[in-house]
């Protein structure tokens, strides 16, 4: 029997996203939001009901990502499990994984058949054909160095010819001045490396690093790590979807 827990999960008193997901599932209160803070912009809100959407309510880029999934699929950072649910309804063999035990419990209650609790970096179970990481799920690598490390580690999760399917964004537009120039310190760290923290009611999470990587930079890192990259879709504000396939030659 496959282990259902790998490595550590978030303490529930440090898990605002999980608390929000669990609270909405129990209360169905459409006004619930998780507050998001960062070191570079004003606070924002994530409406929790958004995380429970059906496939018919998903944006095009997410549906295209689901279309590209094949074989045994691992939905990394699955949250409330909506993408896993959509794949499951399509008849796909999908396993959902999240570091939040509250999110994992909610996914099971929603009817996701295969759920793993834990950290993707600690995973050492059966391999997959597709690793799906949506809503900028690749951001969990934190930094460009983290991206390089993850792309190498992901090879141990994938079968021959396996793929990573994920979206990200080039956020350079956030640094654009009125005259069209960009206010970026070229001596500082990569501009897509952001630090966030979240709150849901009285639950406050720790700060964490999150990465938004531009497509040209991702191309370089994918090639170095031995992947063939395919640009599947480009949306507004440089939001793009890719498939990275293992180069087995």
From TrEMBL:
Q: Where is the Methyltransferase domain?
A: 73-162
State any GO BP term from the record. methylation
- List, alphabetically, the InterPro entries matched: Methyltransf_25 (IPR041698), SAM-dependent_MTases_sf (IPR029063)
Enumerate the SUPFAM superfamilies for this protein.
S-adenosyl-L-methionine-dependent methyltransferases
Q: Which UniProt keywords apply?
A: Methyltransferase, Transferase
Domain of life here?
Bacteria
* GO terms assigned for molecular function: methyltransferase activity
On whether Chaperone is a keyword of this UniProt record, the answer is no
According to the record, the segments passing through the membrane are none
- Is the keyword Repeat assigned to this protein? no
Question: What is the name of the protein in this document?
Answer: Class I SAM-dependent methyltransferase
Name the species this protein comes from. Flammeovirga agarivorans
What broad taxonomic lineage does this protein's source fall under? Bacteria, Pseudomonadati, Bacteroidota, Cytophagia, Cytophagales
